[in-house]
């Protein structure tokens, strides 16, 4: 069957598949066709056709996955949601914004900020990722240490199920207790349950208090872990609490005016009324820079946002990890990563949302040592599982972490939980056509 | 079969069924047996036995449901979780507390507050409800306007599935993206998916900024709704924003030293640095009382907490509603309730968490007019559904709202969503023994 001709026959607009062969984590796939979705009706048409023929369907926001969540690894139809990019409605009384799935995340904030509001989850890809993708991936970002990830901000979605039925999942209300909570089942399901076409999000006012932004340098990663523990023990809720090690700082320095000292730095925002407690919490800082102007604040934030791309640019390939450990285990996890670096003879700069125990160690490799990089990655993930952590805090499972994610569930939750997830997948997608071979289902 | 003898034979401790025939909403049931759960093992024993014989099982925290969620309406075994009341672990580094399901909610805060932390969801029954019950019901309370409900605070649960298998659902971590989010499926599932035996909760520091508490009186409910709209438009995030109408205030006054003026009052907490914006937001207040001392603050909070019990004490029966409407529709919903009062010739004092659009109109009735009270209730719920609201924000569905909840899903979400919920129920509970005839499944 010529899938492309069939799709054209039912009035769908196709794109060249060449633009959709790789995500940002270098995971490859080859779609049989790429459909541009201009409306929910287009999505319905694709799903009815694909369900009847048993063809895989992969929703594609902007292709910013780093885990292979959006590539057509065994063929099928990619639905590009980017044309559905309208902001449908916003209420400054209800503090809810209703958007189409293809809207770029930063456009939501560009709309909200002049009105005095913002949408907190801010993945590093926010300048290009779609809100539908961020919902499917349960994305996080710098502000999540205070505000939580996508799961804390999505109230409802409209989605097209594998059989072509459209449903609204959840209620665009701040409270609702009718029925089971399927909204959170959809968040983080990585396109395996249906295609999200619209999203209702909570928003919040930009804080009215002043925020202090500091960049604190340290001579040991022990002290860096200790500082985060101290912040917790001193009951300080930071607005952001980020780590960049020396290699990351040096990579960032190529494009941004940023200082480098010691082994690395913490970028921390706290409300001004918590400044004293922040100072008390810093464990042997070697140097502390306080951002004096709004411009300086902005520059530091942008520098940190750019860190992953900066590190990617200094190596042929970069494998970004996304581990989470209990705060109490931060000093140990640093030691482990440095041990693995030495054992494997590889570099692994560390950046990440350290304030909630979420680190992105980035394993650098080239064509000669991809296998070693993957072994490094697996060793680290296994260590994290043994320590009671998670192998992903915000990037998701995709195809990259499928086996390790299954292992984590078996060790932490019990094999039965995995069976329940597979059972739920079957309830939504009897024929198994939605983004197959992804997540743990 | 003599269920009680069979349960004794396998070493379980029984209680007299007489203490378990009614919840706090007067919903009645008659269990064949009541088992005291002293450990997860006890729960496993009950589930294996019940699953084999096809006997319904109803988890019971402290019986504080107001919707019939915990009564054995068609027989079966009630599992009383109250003996499982240990605080297992708390980390002031991870800001996570791990407790058994039978712990009373206020005991968690009694443990946390001297350590500088608190657990925000605070249902009016917090002095007696269990944390397992609050999780199953997705409960709310006064602090939820700022902090959200149980769904925003439960990270993981341990539960016994209908076939007796024990699983941990979720991860006790601030971020985790492995697998589907089944934690939120369990929150609010009202005991229809399994028995929760342990819960991991996020906690937060007690705010370090000062809080202003005011009781503002108004001469019209139009102005009361308008004040909440103004707060939103002025981008004020209150810590609490509660309403008590005059009848509620008069009932509360019997036990508390509280003033009464106009048609009712808003009890509002804001951070001290938002005082000015609060003053700007009050729409034609007739009188504003500012709490001057900690004692006065505490007294006002307690008075509001006591409101439902106070109203219950002035009528033979009281049917507490739990509607949620978009903030923009608050003035209209007041008008509708007063219209219904007049049409039915019945009294309906209103109290509730007005800050997030969640009101508890309490329909007063006696043995002579129960049918009219139920018609009033149905009319109000139908109005709310038509206005895009929800018929429950925190009390849940139970048996009370089953039909109306199904209607809400059909109107707002599509019948298909209901089928998905039923499908998921079957994945967990093939024989349908977990708390049958409750929720929408």
TrEMBL record, chains A, B:
GO annotation, biological process: lactate catabolic process
SUPFAM superfamilies: FAD-binding/transporter-associated domain-like, FAD-linked oxidases, C-terminal domain
Alphabetized GO MF terms: D-lactate dehydrogenase (cytochrome) activity; D-lactate dehydrogenase (NAD+) activity; FAD binding
Domain FAD-binding PCMH-type span(s) in chain numbering: 27-206
Domain of life assignment: Archaea
UniProt cofactor(s): FAD
UniProt keyword list: FAD, Flavoprotein, Oxidoreductase, Transit peptide
Protein EC: 1.1.2.4
Family of this protein: Belongs to the FAD-binding oxidoreductase/transferase type 4 family.
PANTHER family associated with the record: D-LACTATE DEHYDROGENASE (PTHR11748), D-LACTATE DEHYDROGENASE, MITOCHONDRIAL-RELATED (PTHR11748:SF111)
Name of the protein this chain belongs to: D-lactate dehydrogenase (cytochrome)
UniProt source species: Sulfuracidifex tepidarius
